[in-house]
Amino acid sequence: MFPLHQNPTGSTLDTLGGFGLPATQLPPLGNFQSLQRLGAPTMPPGGMVDPALTQMVMMQQQMNQMLLGMMQMLMTLMLNREGGAQSTGRQMGHSGLGGGGGVSGSNGASGSLFNSSQTLGAGGPKVQKLIDAALSKQGTPYVFGAAGPDKFDCSGLVSWALKQAGSNIQRLTAEGLHKHYANASVSKEQLQPGDLVFFWSPNDRGIPKGQATHVEIYLGDGKTMGTDSPKEGAKVEPINWSTFIGGARPPELAG
Looking at the domain assignment, is residue 41 inside a domain? Predict the structure, then answer.
């Protein structure tokens, strides 16, 4: 960063990195090892160095080092400020997907609720009604077997939201919904907002692998709306791919 240059006489000059300070002549290497830094004098013929001159040179060295340190600090601050401005611009460009508030995910990082404008490319008006209805119940208590309107279990919430969107489906269990929409199944790669997503976990209800123990509504971007815990109630959370067994797209909501 601070280049050394040779002057015509062969002495070394330190230009202080081109910051506009006058060049300081340095003696040839090996001539005076204890003061082989900025402006060190050569050994006089008598073999003695003037103490006052030596002290002055050392003070000059310290001042030069301080100036260099201050310049480096100033350049670092300028670079950091420029980088921070660019980062802020990127964040503003990507913030508020659809203009909504923060996501109240499973980590509880945000206190605001997920809203329907944050879903990715939701289908027609019936699909939007399904999503809106489900999201309107965020924070509603989980009660096993309940189907609303002020408390739900997982399949109760999905069945209730489907009815609000115009479906004539009756209240079904998670596996009941799984079987009902067997002919409308979609893969993980085909999932769209408004699709139903089914899961299987070890359970004490005798439900074997391949059948659904849980159901939620897919919102897009790897998030779902559902309820499965009395401690948390209905909420938006990242999908648990490790227990995912399939999805379905209710055909009555098409168009």
Answer: yes
